[in-house]
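Weekly modeling sync, notes
Attendees: AB, CL, MP (scribe)

Item 1: holo prediction request
CL wants a bound-state model with zinc ion before deciding which constructs to order. AB pointed out that an apo prediction alone won't tell us much about the pocket. Agreed to run with the ligand included and paste results into these notes for async review.

Input as submitted:
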Amino acid sequence: MEDTAIDGEESREVVARYRGSVVIARVRSDGLIVCPVCGRYYFASEKDLILHIISHAKQELYKYKPDNHG
Ligand SMILES: [Zn+2]
């Protein structure tokens, strides 16, 4: 009989750092890091998480067109 006391609020947080980027994300009970942007992808390493988040940011960049480029 397993005693898994997962009550929704029992979630750890991790501060992932990669090349100057800092991301705070939740960690599931199985140790995978949840993407804080979409919440639909899970990662075993902080690097993978941040590369995924950078891809989110790039998608935003395509939509966001600042006037003062150059
Ligand atoms: Zn995501």
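Recorded for review: The CA atoms of residues 2 and 29 lie 14 Å apart.
Action items: CL to compare against the apo run; MP to circulate these notes.
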